[in-house]
Structure formats: structure tokens, C-alpha cells
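Follow-up to my earlier ticket, as requested here are the two runs.
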Amino acid sequence: AAAETVSGDVRDRALALLHDGRFDAAESLLATTSHPIADVAFLTGFSDQTAFTRAFKRWHGVAPSAYRVAG
């Protein structure tokens, strides 16, 4: 059981780092490029623009397009 907990903790930290990297990349791409949102989604590892937009709204409370405009 202890090994499972350690493995779970390591996995959770790894996933958090992955997500942080995706968030940072998305923010940078939106702020510094004119790539379409669908391209930003693909470049940050999302399967489609809808999944990216939902996740981005959870992170920032606004859609990627609104984040870009507010930039």
C-alpha cells in the first residue's frame, strides 16, 4: 500500500508539471503569436480546440480568445 501511495504521489506531481508546462506554453503562444486557437491547442498537446478551450477556461476563467485580447 505504501508503494502505491508513493507511486501515486510521483504520478500526481509528474502530471502537475506536465499541466503547468502546457499552461505556460499556451499562455506564451496566445500572447506572442497570431496562431489560430486550434493550432495553439495542437501545439500544446490537446486533441482538439474544444478540449483546449474547456481546459483553458478552467485554468484562467476566460476563453483563450479573451485571454489573447486582454493580453
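Run two:
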Amino acid sequence: LDFKIQEHFPDMAKRVVFITGDIANPETVSFLEETGNLFIQKPFTIKEVKNLLDRFFMNPNASSAPSDIPR
């Protein structure tokens, strides 16, 4: 899906927020780091969603900080 968005709507690619439950997978971590997009890890709380949306709408081109990905 990300590839298709980048291909057809490149201006929108940074506006995608990813939801994942697979943060332990190195391929997932690599993908998230490469895109630089915001993401939220499942399971999440309403407060976490609100915080993420606050970050997103304050700066729609914001990317995930490296500290957002657990090592």
C-alpha cells in the first residue's frame, strides 16, 4: 500500500500514519525507519492516539523520532 501511495500520490506519502503490532520484526522496524512516517504500536490507548494525532496535526510532515522504535 505504501508503495502505491508513493507511486500515485507522492505528496500524500508523508501524511500516512502506520499502525503495527509487529515492531519486534526487523523488517518492520527497517520499513518504519525508511519511511520516516509517524506510527503507533498495537495495542494502543485512546490517549496514545490523541498524542499521535496532536503531533501529526501540529506538523503534518513530522516523522517518527528514532526513540519511537524500541530496540
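The only thing I checked on run two: The two ends are 26 Å apart (CA to CA). Let me know what else you need.
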